[in-house]
Write a structure and sequence with these properties.
- This protein is an alpha/beta fold and about 325 residues long.
- It folds into two domains: about 180 residues, Rossmann fold (3-Layer(aba) Sandwich), CATH 3.40.50.450; about 110 residues, Rossmann fold.
- Helix 1 packs parallel to helix 9, helix 5 packs across helix 6 and helix 6 packs parallel to helix 11.
- The longest helix is centred in the middle third of the chain and has 22 residues.
- The radius of gyration is 21 Å and the shape is elongated.
- It starts with a strand and ends with a helix.
- Bound molecules: adenosine-5'-diphosphate (ADP) and 6-O-phosphono-beta-D-fructofuranose (F6P).
């Protein structure tokens, strides 16, 4: 059979390891496998390449996606989606695996509803997709952020400064919570929990009164602008405050071992599901076991970050 794979939306470290697993598992099962370039944009434009065993040599260790990725406005329309289905038919593709975030999975669901056999794989540093404990890329991103926080703590303590660190997460505090815990953040500002700035400032002042001389405040971009938080803290405490916006550095670099393993397992399982004739499902991992979730649930159900972990981070930063 003929299988196609694409990466779509924001790139996530581990996407390459996932493509590698799909290609090698497909070839092992005697399927022909094609890579669609640049997500739905490439699908509509008709850009693809054949993926052989050698095409995925050495990619397990690289961040980004060698198939490249894109955001594609025309795919939001029913015309664009029908054009995508027709393209796959024209190419003689029997099934498509979409690796991406919740937006990309919505596109995949639209194709499934048009009769295309589609399997979804969650990949997003935001880790906001229902149906998996972790999406591909999240572990690498939180390790990237933790490393940056360690570096910032060195300079913060030397200069006795407050550092506001803005991290990614379009609508989710997942990165802030996990990396904030691992990096020993004193304060977390996340969209899932309303921030009481008066309490936050009072807490900061109390810790300084007890002898603390530096502090790291992690702000999820979906909750507030780091710049506004930094200004408020500076104005209301008089402490010396610096802002660091980590930006896209969080999304780059080699994937961690955990992301490579997750990506490899999800990729290989997606090919198995394709062979079984399944469609409209996303494969994820819960408590170490692979599970499938209807794509409709994956994109419509809400996933909160670990709020117990957020609470613990606050307790431990006392
Ligand atoms: P991510 O997959 O990382 O969440 P986006 O939300 O930007 O990234 O989505 C990536 C692409 O998926 C969009 O540019 C669009 O082409 C497609 N997409 C997103 N939402 C939908 C939708 N509701 N219907 C169809 N396609 C969608
Ligand atoms: O969805 C992943 C993500 O990195 C978000 O955390 C962030 O808000 C967004 O993508 C950034 O998008 P872009 O790469 O288009 O700037």
């Amino acid at each position: 059979m003929h299988l196609a794979v694409m990466t779509s939306g924001g790139d996530a470290p581990g996407m390459n390891a996932c493509i590698r697993a799909i290609v090698r598992q497909s070839i092992y099962m005697h399927h022909d496998v094609w890579g669609v370039l640049r997500g739905y944009d490439g699908l509509l434009a008709g850009h693809r390449r054949r993926l052989g065993l050698g095409s995925v040599a050495d990619v397990i260790k690289t961040g980004g996606t060698f198939l490249r990725t894109a955001r594609c406005l025309p795919f939001f329309t029913t015309e664009g989606q029908a054009q995508g289905r027709d393209r796959l038919r024209e190419w003689g593709i029997d099934g498509l695996i979409v690796i991406g975030g919740d937006g990309s999975l919505r596109g995949a669901l639209a194709l499934h509803q048009l009769g295309v056999q589609v399997i979804g794989i969650p990949a997003s540093i935001d880790n906001d997709i229902y149906g998996t404990d972790s999406a591909i890329g999240f572990d690498t991103a939180i390790n990237n952020v933790t490393q940056s926080m360690d570096k910032l703590r060195d300079t913060a303590s030397s200069h006795e400064r407050v550092f506001v660190v803005e991290v990614m997460g379009r609508e989710s505090g997942a990165i802030a919570v996990a990396a904030g815990m691992a990096g020993g953040a004193e304060t977390l500002v996340i969209p899932e929990v309303p921030t009481n700035y008066t309490t936050m400032i009072a807490r900061l002042k109390r810790s300084y009164a007890r002898g603390k001389r530096h502090s790291l405040i992690v702000v999820a971009e979906g909750a507030a602008h780091g710049e506004d938080v930094a200004r408020a803290v500076q104005e209301q405490t008089g402490y010396e405050v610096r802002l660091t916006v980590l930006g896209h550095t969080q999304r780059g670099g080699p994937p961690t071992a955990l992301d490579r393993i997750l990506a490899s397992r999800l990729g290989a399982e997606a090919v198995q599901l394709f062979q079984e004739g399944q469609s409209g499902v996303m494969v994820g991992s819960k408590c170490g076991s692979l599970i499938t979730t209807p794509m409709e649930d994956a994109v419509n159900q809400h996933k909160d970050p670990d709020l117990d972990l957020a609470h613990l981070a606050a307790v431990l930063a006392i």
